[in-house]
Design goal:
There is one protein chain. This protein is α/β, with parallel strands linked by helices and about 500 residues long. It has two domains: about 210 residues, YjeF N-terminal domain (Rossmann fold), CATH 3.40.50; about 260 residues, Ribokinase (UDP-N-acetylmuramoyl-L-alanine:D-glutamate ligase, 3-Layer(aba) Sandwich), CATH 3.40.1190.20. The protein has 17 helices and 17 strands. The strands form two sheets. A ten-stranded mixed β-sheet has the order 8-17-16-15-14-13-12-9-10-11, with helices on both faces. Helix 6 links the parallel strand 6 and strand 7. The radius of gyration is 26 Å and the shape is elongated. Bound molecules: ligand LP7C6HRI and potassium ion (K). Its cofactor is K(+); Mg(2+). It catalyses: (6R)-NADHX = (6S)-NADHX; (6S)-NADPHX + ADP = AMP + phosphate + NADPH + H(+); (6R)-NADPHX = (6S)-NADPHX; (6S)-NADHX + ADP = AMP + phosphate + NADH + H(+). It comes from Hymenobacter swuensis DY53. Pfam families: Carb_kinase (PF01256), YjeF_N (PF03853).
Length: about 500
C-alpha cells in the first residue's frame, strides 16, 4: 500500500468524486457509514453506552457529525460537541444541518467540558489530515481534557493534533487514542514508534477511493502487506536442482557467539538456499557440524575469530556479521570482502559495527549491498544521532542514496530503504521477536534470498523481512510472545515463505 501525503490524499478524494460522479458530501457519507459499521462491530456499544463525538470545523468534524447522525438513527446515544471556529467547511455545515433534532449538540467551552465517565466512548473528529499548525487555545485544552479522561477514544482518520507525515514539537497537544480508524490507506505517522502512544491500534477502512489514481500517484513510502508481495516469490521449478537456488557463504561466529552462526545458517537453509558454506573460527567447527549438518563448514585457521577470507569464486552471495566479534583481523577480512566481492553481500551485526568504527570502509561497499542495522548500529554508520523518527528516515534515505545500497532498519515496523531513497515499512512481526538471535535469523534468511538469482535485490529484501516477521507471528501462536526464542523463528520460515508462494495470483 502506498503512504500518501495530505496533499495527495486531498487530490485523491477529488479525483474519486470526479471519476465516480459523486459529491464530496457523498464520499463523506460513505466514510461515515463504513466508520459506523466498524465502530459497532469492534466496540460493540450497548444502546445505553454514551458516545461523545468531538467535532472540529473541517471535514474531519464533518465525518464526526455524519457518524453522530447514523449512530442516532441506529438507536445509539450520541452527544455532539462542536469546536467553535471562524470558518467551517461546506461538508461540515451540510452535516451540521442534517443533524436530527433529538440529538444533543453543544458548543465546547473551557468552562463547560462534558462529563466523560469510564466506559464512555469518545470519537475524536476534531482535526484530521487538514491540520496545518499545532493546536492551541480551546482545541489544546479539549485535547488535554480528553487525554486525562477515562473514556475510550477512537480517532477518526488520525488523532487530532498529530501531523500525518511530519514531526511535532515536543509536548504538542495530541489526542491519545486507543484506536485510530483511517480511510483507504495508512499514514506515515502511524508507523513511527514516537507516535505509538497517540495512534494506538490502527485500522484502515476501504471507502472505494479510485485505484487507478492511487496507482498513478508517485510516493516515497510504502506499507508492505501480503497483497503487496503477491507474485514476487516464484515457485520452485519442477526441474530445479540445488544449483538453481545458489550457493551462499556465511562468515560468522567467534568464541562465545557461535550460536549466532548456527541461527543464521539454519535460517539460510530454511530460506531455501541451494547450498550453504559457513566460515567459522576453529571453535565453531564441532558445534556447527552437529547442529546444522546440512551446511558445509570451512574453518578459519584461527581458533577464536575469523582472520582469513576464503576464495569467493564458488559463491552466489556472501553474508557476514552474526556473532563475528570485532577483532582487528576480522575487520581486515571485511575489508578484503568489500574489495573482492562481485556477488550480493548481506552485512549485519559486528560487520556493521566494524563499518561504523571504520567509516572509510563504507566507501568500499559494492552497489546493492544489503545492510541490516538496528537503530543504534545505524547511528554508528552515520555518526549522527537522529533527532526523531522522521529525521532517522531521512538519514536512512540519504545513506542508501549516497552508498547505492539497501538498508534495513530493524524495529517494530522494520523498514527497508533502497538506493532510490524509497522506504518500505514491513507489516509483520510482534514484540516477542525482540529477543537475542532474531537478527541473526533475518540475516540468514536474507542471505538465502539474495543467493537466489531469480529475485531482484528489492524483492529479496521485502520477501525476507515479511517472511521473518510472519514466522514470528506463526511461532508466537505456539509459544506466546514472551516464550518466543530465535530458534522458533527458524522453524516457521518455511511455512511463512510457503504462504507467500501459494498466492492465488501466482503465474
Ligand atoms: N481521506 C479521505 O478519503 C476522506 C477524508 N475525509 C475527512 O476529511 C478530513 C480532512 O478534512 P479537512 O477539511 O481537509 O481538514 P480538517 O478536518 O483536519 O480541518 C481543517 C480545518 O481546520 C483548520 N486548522 C488546521 N489546523 C488547525 C489548528 N491547529 N488549529 C485550528 N484550526 C486548524 C484548517 O485551516 C481548516 O479550516 C480527513 O481527515 C477525513 O477525516 C472525508 O470525509 C472523506 C474522504
Ligand atoms: K481526528
Amino acid at each position: 500500500m502506498k503512504l500518501l501525503s495530505p496533499a495527495q490524499t486531498r487530490a485523491l478524494d477529488q479525483a474519486t468524486s470526479k471519476a465516480q460522479g459523486i459529491t464530496s458530501l457523498e464520499l463523506m457519507e460513505r466514510a461515515a457509514t463504513t466508520l459506523l459499521d466498524w465502530l459497532l462491530t469492534t466496540l460493540q456499544p450497548t444502546y445505553t453506552t454514551p458516545i461523545h463525538l468531538f467535532c472540529g470545523p473541517g471535514n474531519n468534524g464533518g465525518d464526526g457529525l455524519a457518524l453522530a447522525r447514523l449512530l442516532h438513527e441506529a438507536g445509539y446515544v450520541a452527544h455532539v460537541w462542536l469546536l467553535p471556529a471562524e470558518r467551517y467547511s461546506a461538508d461540515f455545515t451540510a452535516n451540521r444541518h442534517q443533524l436530527p433534532d433529538g440529538i444533543s449538540c453543544q458548543e465546547l467551552d473551557t468552562a463547560r467540558l462534558p462529563d466523560l465517565p469510564a466506559g464512555a466512548v469518545v470519537v475524536d473528529a476534531l482535526f484530521g489530515a487538514g491540520l496545518n499548525r499545532p493546536l492551541t487555545g480551546l482545541a489544546a485544552a479539549v485535547v488535554a481534557y480528553l487525554n486525562a479522561a477515562a473514556a475510550f477514544t477512537v480517532a477518526v482518520d488520525i488523532p487530532s493534533g498529530l501531523f500525518a507525515d511530519a514531526a511535532q514539537e515536543p509536548d504538542s497537544a495530541v489526542v491519545q487514542a486507543q484506536y485510530t480508524v483511517s480511510f483507504e490507506l495508512p499514514k506515515l505517522a502511524f508507523l513511527l514508534p514516537q507516535n505509538a502512544g497517540f495512534v494506538g491500534e490502527w485500522h484502515i477502512l476501504p471507502i472505494g477511493l479510485e485505484p487507478v489514481v492511487i496507482h498513478k500517484t508517485a510516493v516515497d513510502n510504502y506499507y508492505v502487506d501480503a497483497a503487496f508481495l503477491q507474485g514476487r516469490l516464484p515457485a520452485r521449478p519442477k526441474f530445479s536442482h540445488k544449483g538453481t537456488f545458489g550457493h551462499a557463504l556465511l562468515l560468522a561466529g567467534s568464541r562465545g557467539k557461535v550460536g549466532a552462526a548456527v541461527l543464521a545458517a539454519s535460517a539460510c537453509l530454511r530460506g531455501g538456499v541451494g547450498l550453504l558454506t559457513v566460515r567459522v573460527p576453529e571453535v565453531g567447527y564441532f558445534i556447527l557440524q552437529t547442529t546444522v549438518p546440512e551446511a558445509m563448514c570451512l574453518t578459519d585457521p584461527a581458533p577464536d575469530f575469523l582472520t582469513e577470507l576464503p576464495d569467493l569464486q564458488p559463491y552466489a552471495a556472501v553474508g557476514m556479521g552474526p556473532g563475528l566479534g570485532q577483532a582487528e583481523a576480522s575487520r581486515e577480512v571485511l575489508r578484503q570482502l568489500l574489495h573482492k566481492a562481485k556477488v550480493p553481500l548481506v552485512l549485519d551485526a559486528d560487520a556493521l559495527n566494524l563499518l561504523g568504527a571504520n567509516r572509510d570502509l563504507l566507501d568500499l561497499l559494492p552497489p546493492d549491498t544489503l545492510l541490516t542495522p538496528h537503530p543504534k548500529e545505524f547511528e554508528r554508520l552515520t555518526g549522527e544521532p537522529a533527532r526523531d523518527d522522521y529525521h532517522r528516515l531521512e538519514q536512512l534515505r540519504a545513506f542508501t542514496r549516497q552508498r547505492r545500497c539497501y538498508c534495513v532498519l530493524k524495529g517494530a515496523y522494520t523498514v527497508l530503504a533502497t538506493p532510490d531513497g524509497i522506504i518500505y515499512f514491513n507489516s509483520t512481526g510482534n514484540p516477542g521477536m525482540a529477543t537475542g538471535g532474531s537478527g541473526d535469523v533475518l540475516t540468514g534468511l536474507l542471505l538465502a534470498l539474495r543467493a537466489d538469482k531469480r529475485l531482484s535485490p528489492l524483492n529479496a529484501a521485502l520477501l525476507g523481512l515479511y517472511a521473518h516477521g510472519r514466522a514470528g507471528d506463526l511461532a508466537a501462536r505456539e509459544t506466546g510472545e514472551a516464550g518466543l526464542v530465535a530458534g522458533d523463528l527458524v522453524r516457521f520460515i518455511g511455512p511463512a515463505l510457503q504462504e507467500l508462494m501459494a498466492s492465488p495470483h501466482r503465474l
